[in-house]
Structure formats: structure tokens, C-alpha cells
Specification:
The structure holds 2 protein chains of 2 kinds. Chain A is α/β, with parallel strands linked by helices. Chain A is built from 24 helices and 20 strands. Chain A has 3 domains: about 10-160, no CATH class; about 175-260 and about 310-405, Rossmann fold (3-Layer(aba) Sandwich), CATH 3.40.50.300; about 425-660, Rossmann fold (3-Layer(aba) Sandwich), CATH 3.40.50. Chain A is globular and about 75 Å long. By secondary structure, chain B is an all-alpha fold. Chain B has a domain at about 60-260. In chain B, α3 (about 25-45) runs parallel beside α14 (about 280-300). Classes of the chains: A alpha/beta, B mainly alpha. At the A-B interface, α16, α17 and α19 of A face α1, α10 and α11 of B. Chain B: This is Autoinducer 2 import system permease protein LsrD. Chain B: Pfam families: BPD_transp_2.
Chain lengths: ~675, ~350
């Protein structure tokens, strides 16, 4: 966190830095990064920036064109991130152009005493490929001025100074100290970064790191609580998505939002239709525009065909065409590749690269590291709503990225009791549902807490909903205590002793308009009835018992459950299902959106239930929760099991590796 | 037993607002209104309070109130059945046709109830089996069943039903003030009331109407429940078709035309939310009585049929409008209190 928010105030006296780079480079020692003397590339540029932009974090200052000389953020960085300090400042286009500088940096990092040549090759010439630490594919910035002379470089720097506040050096889009809270939950806190023209910038982070909130603020869906958004250097305040669009920001979501029954051309022109003189829609021009856009994107799509039936990839290309037609200069892509095949991804990337080279600023959100390294020059990492770092992709290994995404202390919030597992309660074999998950097999024993980990959309909830019977499945079997359950029949699962605390409390867990007591007794109203009749008193007594056991804070049991706080609502859901006396409890995101105190209570409850011999399956997107609570962790990725880890084997890194499709490190 | 239901109309209730919300609940309002109308009418309107008029009123109530019993359940689950009046017409036609075929009345009556139930099965299958919207399906079968009724009986009428049956429907207990059919109404209303308000099945109706997904996640068989509601609705419509035919001693294809709107109006007037999840049977019963009593009183005062429609229509609009207004007013009070507390 510290390095992320490093302010100009922390910096060494930058303005004094002598411009003479050749002399300083080799001489500087291990903390080369921190001394102003070895960062001469933009001496003139430097002083100006902190003044014009004091609020933004250090990383946000970097531009693709004049990246080198911003040591402001250096002092803070090495403590947390020794691996990528020096190069971090460089921006894609002129990254390698500091030959004299390099030995020092490299030395500082890896080889305190010798072999400057080697380190140079390692860190200073990423475009040369082979020596790249990560052995990653080449950066797409082939035009990196590897052979830039010092003179050229200085000129560029000078030019950049001149241009301050204008095109080339101005961030196309700047996010400055932006915060956004929803109720008591701080989704985004003091995040700053910048997108420059001609840059593809990745935004990564775990589930719930705040990426989507950032996207929604940029799209004008949410308004920042504090902080500023800047487009081309001037502050903007989006009252709605229309304003963001007018400012040239286009957002492409994972699920395209086309009108299926309109033609491709009509979709592109939506809200912006060309008119004839008689104020009718000019179809000819509409089609011509669409065709021109498709030619420019190099995609062979027929503008007159309806959007229905287009592949997701083609729909995304239509969305991009739509963005281009409104002259978007910032393209924000929120996990656009999640549903695409490798070939489609490559086609999308080709289009995105050409847009980037034409000067658009691209923000790319993905959970696939191979895509980030293939497409992006810089990456901004978020964690828990905060900005962690903005780095050159070339400077980070996948390891580094993951570590920074998850890097936090495992709190002592998880009071897991040691339990010797008993007999097998749940057996799932070869469970498949077309297009959702495939070949899922696992078992859970009494007293065990098994966690299903993975990214949002990996199919975890869908698997457990199929196991419980609220969703159908195509193949496979679900057995409880050796007896096979009927497919798609929650009552059969409930009769076998299964209970599901679902992911979405408001839509699936509770009937918000009904009273607390009715909600608690809903799944077992039949058992409470005498001679088929059910009276308020019986329900109240039953509800009373369980809400008291879970220490639910409530006014009256006859109050609508929607009047309770999120944490207490979750307790009502737990009460509802624990009242059925389950043998197997499935909890899906049991602590989502509830406060820390209640969280700990829920964890304690789960632990003690397991200690009493209950088999527990927990779906959770919170890694600390998974690692803290689970005896075993099953990791899903894109509908398949990619790893099954014991408590001892599991670390944040190994789980994230499996969740993101990387090989599990030994 | 309906205390949660009336309260749920007040989302912003605070701790001590319980009594007030109970007093201002729609059930109470409609009940008081009904009693007021009955009292005022019996003093102000000649012949309103006579036992003869009471019998007529009960006979007028009969079709609306019986069909409203299952209709209340259906609307509570968030669906609707507009085909009930046409089902009534079809069973009336079938009754006449079967009578002409020489079947005994003892065979015909249960058969007609079964025919009504079959109409309900068709609705239920289209709605829950194929997942079609109930509004569209039952508008379709509204036309379909009425059309079939005309196919069966044409424009004619069958009138020669046995006296002992037609007489029972229009008669009173021992020749006194209590109509025979009132017993039927009371028995069925009790059964439906208990099922709706004091059984697990009844509980599930409210859960389905308020949040079908959460109901599904709680192990409630949503589709099956709705299916049986349509079957029951059809069977009751069939029974009412029989009663209607016997009351007027006339089996006609156009019997009960437009009755579905009167039923839906009465149910909504009784405080059932058209969006599902809210409402109680006592409220609906009061709504039916209010509507019928008002129409009866106005008719006794020689108000024309068109003017009666105006009254019915206005009442329906008011019944939908008033709860919203009271909720909004309560919300305002609540907000003002919060604002004052914040100061």
C-alpha cells in the first residue's frame, strides 16, 4: 500500500537531479533507484509533474512516451517490491533506452558486485527478448526506440515538457485518489492511475478488489464519493453513462449488450442514427458507416444481419465498432475474453492493438495472465479496494502479480478447530452440465470443511446448486450417505439431510417481504404442522429457538426480514437451514457483504458445527476465508476442477495459480 | 392470523408503528367500509334490509365469492386466471347438452365440475409446463372456452332442469332468512381460508408470490403448486357454472360473461397485491361483500346499469390507488421523523 500511494512529498529532491546521465549511471550503487542522479532521462520534465499533479500517486505519472525519469516513487518501492523497482518507471515506448543507467539498477537488484553486462541484457533490453527474466512473449511495443540516441531522448523529454497539459503527455484518462463506498463497505479507496494515449493498460485484482467499481465509475454508472476523474487533463463529473460516452469513454462488458433483433448496423448506430433531410433514419448511411468501421477493424461482418446469432466474439467486435462510431478514445474492456476461444481472442487482440496504435487508450481487465502479457504494456494491481502498484508488465513475473494481488496477512479471524473426519457424507461423481461445468467429482466427510475456490464465473455456485437440486445437471451422480439423490429435486436433497445457504441472500436465500419467523420455518413448514395445520405460535417458537442460538439482532420475529441488516439476514438464512437439522451444510459465500464482527461469528459457527460432525461445503471467493476455514480446497477454473489441495498444501499463491489456470508451483 | 400480511404493506415500519399499521391496514379499512355501507344502506335504502333482498344479495354474491376463493390464491402467487367466466360458460353449456342427452342430474353435476377441472389442467399445463405467461394463456383460453361453449349449445338455451335442484339453489333454510347457498359459501370460504392461512401449502403461496426463486431454494415445488391452483380454480368455476345454470334454470353459452373482471376487481379491492405475495382472504371476502352490497343498494335506488359500472370501475381504481397513497404518506412521516432525529 505504501508504495502505491507514494507521494511526491516522499521523493528525494528531484529537481536537482543532474541531467548528465552517462556519468551517473555506472557509478551509482545499490540504491541507484532511489537516487535522483541515475534518472536523468527527463530532468526537465520531472519538476513540473509533481506540481501539476500532486494528488495522483506516483505510478500514475508514468507515460508511455517519457516513462523513465520519475523516481518519485522509488524510495517506497524497494521495501515491498525489490524485484521490479527501477524499470517500473519506464513506459512502453522508450523503456530500454537507458544503457548507462542499467548496470546500476541491475546491480541494485540482483548483483551487488559485478557483471553489469549481464544485468543489462536482462533488464534493459526487453525488446531483445531472450534475456527477459520471465521469458515472456515480446512486448507489443516493437516501435520501442531501442536505438534512441541520447539526443533524441533529450529532445523527446523537452518536447514532452512543452506538451505538458496537451496531447502527447497528457493522460487521456486519469483516476485521481478516487474512493467509493456502498453503505459501510469501502469498495474503492484512494485509487489513482492514468491511461495514456496509445497504451494498453491492464487492471488486475482478486474478486472484490474493486475493479468493477472502477469500471462503473469510469462508465458513469457510479459517481465517486471523493476524488477526481480527468479526461485529457480536465476534471469531469459523470452524472450518468451518457456523460461518460460523451467524454469518449466506451465500456465493453463481458456480456455484450446488443439488441438481438436489430441489425448489426442498427446496433452500431443506436442512439446516434444518421438522419435524412426528412428526419428519417438514413439506412444507407448507417450501413455505409458500419461497413467502414468493419473495414477499419478488418473484420468481415455483414452490417445488415441481425445481432441475434452472432458469436460472443463477433458481438464484442460490434460493440467495439459502436465505440469507434461514437469516437471513443478510451476503451475499457471488462473481461472481454472470458467467453472467447483462443482464435477469437487473437482476433480481438489484433483489433485492440491496431486501435491502440492509432492512439486510443485501452484498459483491459482479465484474469488470464497470458493475455495481459500479450496485450498490455502496463498493469495496475488492486487489492481490497486499494491501489497496490502500477508497473510495466515486462517487469513483473506472473508470480509477482499474484503475490501482489493476494498479498496480505492471513488474519487470525478463523478459529478453525481440528476435527478428525468421519464417514463420507457426500459423493459427487462426474457431474456435468453443458456449458457450465464438466466432470466434477469430489467427496465430503463428516466433520470436514471443504472449500470450493475459484474465480467468479468458474462454476462453483452452479455445481453446488446442481448438487442441492435447485439447478439441473446433464450427467453424473450425487450421493448422500451412499444413497443417490433425485436430479433437480431440492426436496429429495433436503430429505437426505442437505441444506444450502445460497450465494444471493436477497434473491435466493430469503423472501424479503415475509416475516423473520415465516422465513426461518419455510423449508420445514410441513414438519411443524400438526394434522396439516400450521399456526403462528408454532412457527414463532421454532424461529425463536434458532434466531436466539445464532444471536440474531432483531426487533420482533413478525418483522419483515428485509428490515434487518445484512449480517443478521445472513444469520436468519443460517437459522432457517440449521433448523432443518442438516447432515451436510453447503454455504455459498457465507460472509459476503456482512460486517467483520458477524463474519467472525459465522466462521466460529461453521467451525463448531463441523466439530459436531456436520459436513460442510463452503464456496468462497475470499482466499483468507478459504485458507483459514477449509480442511480441503477444491479449485475450479472455467467449470473444471484444476486442483485439490489439502490444508497443508494450500497457500494463497497455489490456490490462485490453480484458479487462474497456471501450473501449480511445486 | 394475517397480521404479517397486513404489516408487510408498510415497509418502513418502526418499532411502535405496529398498532397504527394494523389500524390503517387495508384489511381493516375495507372491513370497516363494508360494515358502514351495509349499515347506511339498510337505513337509507328502502327494502335493502329485507330478508328477501338479503337472499338476492347472497345469490348475487355466490359466483363472485366462490371464484374469488381460488383466484385469491392464484393472484397471491403472482399469477392470474382470466378464463374462469368462460369455464363457467362452457360447463353451463355442457350441462344443458348432457341434460338433453338424457343423463341424470346426479351424474351431470360432478361431471361438470370435472370438465371445469380439465379446463384448469389445460391452463396449468400451458402456464407451468410450458412456462407461458398466465395473463396471455388465460386471455387465450377465455376466448377458447367461450367459443367451445357456443359450439356445444349454440345460441339456444336448455331450461327444463328438475325443480328440486333449481329450487334448492334459490331457496332458503326452512323458508327462513338464510339462503341455502350461504351454507356452501361459508363451508368453502372456511376451507379456503384455513388452507391459505394455516397450512404449509398456504405459506408457500406467499413465498412463491414474493420471491419464487427463494421459494424454489427452500424446497417449495413452485410449478406443481401453481398447477394445482389452476385445476382447483377450474373446478370451482365448473361448480359455479352448475349453480348459475340452476339459479336461472337456464343453460346458456353466454352465462357469466365478464364475470372474471368482477372477480379480479373484488380480489384487488380486498387488498391482494396484483404483483403477488400480499393479501388475505378476509379482506377479499369484505371486498366482495362491499362491491355487491353497493351495487344492490344502487339498483334498489333505481340507478341505471351504466352508472353501476362507473361505481364499480371507480372503486377498483381507488382500491389500487389508496394503498399506494397510504404507503407514500407513511413513508413521508417516516422520513420526516428520521430527518428530525438527524437534526
Amino acid at each position: 500500500m505504501a508504495e502505491a500511494n507514494a507521494r511526491p512529498e516522499n521523493q528525494p529532491a528531484q529537481p536537482e537531479s543532474p541531467p548528465a546521465r552517462p556519468e551517473t549511471g555506472p557509478a551509482s550503487s545499490a540504491d541507484a533507484n532511489r537516487t535522483p542522479t541515475d534518472r536523468p532521462a527527463r530532468p526537465k520534465n520531472q519538476p513540473a509533474r509533481p506540481e501539476t499533479d500532486p494528488a495522483s500517486s506516483a505510478d500514475a505519472h508514468r507515460t508511455p512516451t517519457d516513462r523513465p525519469a520519475q523516481p518519485e516513487n522509488q524510495p517506497a518501492r524497494p521495501e515491498t517490491d525489490p524485484a521490479s523497482s527501477a524499470d517500473a518507471n519506464r513506459t512502453p515506448t522508450d523503456r530500454p533506452a537507458q544503457p548507462t543507467d542499467s548496470p546500476a539498477q541491475a546491480t541494485g537488484r540482483h548483483q551487488p558486485t559485478d557483471s553489469p553486462a549481464q544485468t543489462t541484457s536482462q533488464h534493459q533490453q526487453p525488446t531483445d527478448g531472450p534475456a527477459q527474466t520471465m521469458g515472456r512473449p515480446q512486448q507489443p511495443t516493437e516501435h520501442a526506440p531501442n536505438q534512441l540516441t541520447q539526443a533524441e531522448h533529450n529532445e523527446r523529454a523537452a518536447g514532452s515538457k512543452r506538451a505538458t497539459g496537451q496531447d502527447a503527455q497528457t493522460a487521456r484518462l486519469e483516476v485521481v485518489e478516487v474512493s467509493k463506498s456502498f453503505g459501510a463497505v469501502a469498495a474503492v479507496q484512494g485509487v489513482s492511475f492514468a491511461l495514456y494515449p496509445g497504451e494498453a493498460h491492464a487492471l488486475v485484482g482478486e474478486n472484490g478488489a474493486g475493479k468493477s467499481t472502477i469500471v462503473k465509475m469510469l462508465a458513469g454508472v457510479h459517481r465517486p464519493d471523493t476524488g477526481t476523474l480527468r479526461v485529457d487533463g480536465s476534471d469531469v463529473d459523470f452524472a450518468g453513462p451518457g456523460d461518460a460516452k460523451a467524454a469518449g469513454i466506451a465500456v465493453i462488458y463481458q456480456e455484450p449488450t446488443l439488441f438481438p433483433d436489430l441489425s448489426v448496423a442498427e446496433n452500431i448506430a443506436m442512439g446516434n442514427q444518421p438522419l435524412t433531410r426528412t428526419r428519417q433514419i438514413d439506412r444507407k448511411q448507417m450501413h455505409a458507416t458500419a461497413e467502414r468501421l468493419f473495414r477499419r477493424l478488418g473484420v468481415p461482418l455483414d452490417p445488415t444481419r441481425p445481432a441475434r446469432g452472432l458469436s460472443i466474439a463477433d458481438q464484442q467486435l460490434v460493440e467495439i465498432a459502436k465505440a469507434l462510431s461514437s469516437e471513443a478514445r478510451v476503451l475499457i474492456m471488462d473481461e472481454p475474453t472470458a467467453a472467447l476461444s483462443a482464435v477469437e481472442v487473437e482476433r480481438l487482440f489484433a483489433v485492440v492493438r491496431s486501435l491502440r496504435d492509432e492512439g486510443a487508450a485501452i484498459m483491459f481487465i482479465s484474469h488470464r495472465f497470458e493475455e495481459i502479457t500479450a496485450l498490455c504494456e502496463r498493469v495496475t494491481i488492486m487489492r481490497d479496494g486499494r491501489h497496490v502498484a502500477t508497473e510495466l508488465v515486462a517487469d513483473l513475473s506472473v508470480d509477482d502479480m499474484i503475490r501482489r494481488m493476494v498479498g496480505r496477512d492471513l488474519s487470525a479471524l478463523f478459529p478453525k478447530q481440528q476435527v478428525t473426519p468421519g464417514e463420507t457424507v457426500l459423493e459427487v461423481e462426474g457431474l456435468s452440465r453443458e456449458g457450465i461445468f464438466r466432470d466434477i467429482s469430489f467427496s465430503v466427510r463428516a466433520g470436514e470443511i471443504v472449500a470450493l475456490a475459484g474465480l467468479v464465473g468458474a462454476g462453483r455456485s452452479e455445481v453446488m446448486q446442481a448438487v442441492f437440486g435447485v439447478d439441473p445437471y446433464d450427467r453424473g451422480t450425487v450421493k448422500v450417505h451412499g444413497r443417490r439423490l433425485r436430479k433437480g429435486d431440492p426436496r429429495s436433497a433436503m430429505a437426505a439431510g442437505m441444506a444450502l445457504v445460497p450465494e444471493d441472500r436477497r434473491q435466493q436465500g430469503l423472501v424479503m417481504d415475509l416475516s423473520i419467523e415465516r422465513n426461518v420455518t419455510l423449508p420445514r413448514a410441513r414438519k411443524l404442522a400438526r394434522l396439516g395445520l400450521l399456526f403462528g405460535g408454532t412457527e414463532r417458537a421454532a424461529a425463536e429457538t434458532w434466531t436466539r442460538k445464532l444471536q440474531t439482532k432483531l426487533g420482533r420475529l413478525s418483522d419483515a426480514v428485509g428490515t434487518l441488516s445484512g449480517g443478521n439476514q445472513q444469520k436468519v438464512v443460517l437459522a432457517k437451514w440449521l433448523a432443518t437439522g442438516p447432515k451436510l451444510l453447503i454455504v455459498d459465500e457465507p460472509t459476503r457483504g456482512i460486517d467483520v464482527g458477524t463474519k467472525a461469528e459465522v466462521h466460529r459457527l461453521m467451525s463448531s458445527l463441523a466439530a459436531d460432525g456436520l459436513a460442510v461445503v463452503m464456496v468462497s471467493s475470499e482466499l483468507p476465508e478459504v485458507l483459514g476455514m477449509a480442511d480441503r480446497i477444491i479449485v475450479l477454473r472455467e467449470g473444471r476442477v484444476t486442483a485439490e489441495l489439502t490444508r497443508a498444501e494450500a497457500t494463497e499463491e497455489s490456490v490462485m495459480y490453480a484458479a487462474m489456470g497456471q501450473e501449480v508451483a511445486a | 392470523m394475517s397480521d404479517t400480511l397486513t404489516k408487510s404493506a408498510t415497509p418502513t415500519r418502526t418499532g411502535k408503528g405496529n398498532l397504527r399499521s394494523k389500524l390503517t391496514g387495508w384489511d381493516t379499512i375495507i372491513g370497516v367500509l363494508t360494515v358502514l355501507v351495509l349499515i347506511i344502506a339498510s337505513f337509507a335504502v328502502d327494502n335493502f334490509g329485507t330478508s328477501r333482498n338479503f337472499t338476492f344479495m347472497v345469490l348475487d354474491l355466490l359466483p363472485i365469492i366462490l371464484i374469488a376463493l381460488p383466484m385469491t390464491m392464484i393472484i397471491v402467487t403472482g399469477e392470474i386466471d382470466l378464463s374462469v367466466a368462460s369455464t363457467l360458460g362452457l360447463t353451463s353449456s355442457m350441462m344443458g347438452w348432457l341434460w338433453n342427452q338424457g343423463l341424470s342430474i346426479e351424474t351431470i353435476i360432478p361431471l361438470c365440475v370435472v370438465i371445469g377441472a380439465v379446463c384448469g389442467v389445460v391452463n396449468g399445463f400451458l402456464i407451468t409446463g410450458l412456462g407461458l405467461p398466465s395473463l396471455a394463456v388465460t386471455i387465450g383460453t377465455l376466448a377458447l372456452y367461450r367459443g367451445l361453449a357456443f359450439v356445444v349449445l349454440g345460441d339456444g338455451a336448455v331450461a327444463d332442469f328438475p325443480w328440486n335442484y333449481t329450487g334448492w339453489v334459490t331457496g332458503t333454510l326452512g323458508g327462513g332468512a338464510v339462503p341455502n347457498v350461504l351454507i356452501l359459501i361459508v363451508v368453502l370460504a372456511l376451507i379456503f381460508g384455513i388452507v391459505q392461512h394455516a397450512t404449509p401449502f398456504g405459506r408457500s403461496l406467499y413465498a412463491i408470490g414474493a420471491n419464487a426463486q427463494a421459494a424454489h431454494f427452500s424446497g417449495i415445488r413452485v410449478a406443481r403448486t401453481k398447477f394445482w391452483l389452476y385445476v382447483v380454480s377450474g373446478a370451482i368455476a365448473g361448480l359455479v357454472g352448475v349453480l348459475w345454470t340452476l339459479r336461472y334454470s337456464s343453460a346458456r353459452a353466454d352465462n357469466g360473461s365478464g364475470l372474471e373482471l368482477a372477480v379480479v376487481a373484488a380480489v384487488l379491492l380486498g387488498g391482494v397485491s396484483i404483483f403477488g405475495g400480499k393479501g388475505s382472504l378476509p379482506g377479499v371476502l369484505a371486498g366482495v361483500v362491499l362491491l355487491t352490497a353497493l351495487q344492490n343498494a344502487l339498483r334498489l335506488e333505481d340507478v341505471s346499469g351504466q352508472a353501476l359500472n362507473i361505481v364499480t370501475g371507480s372503486l377498483l381504481v381507488l382500491s389500487v390507488l389508496l394503498p399506494n397513497i397510504t404507503t407514500a404518506v407513511r413513508g413521508n412521516w417516516h422520513r420526516r421523523r428520521l430527518r428530525q432525529a438527524a437534526r
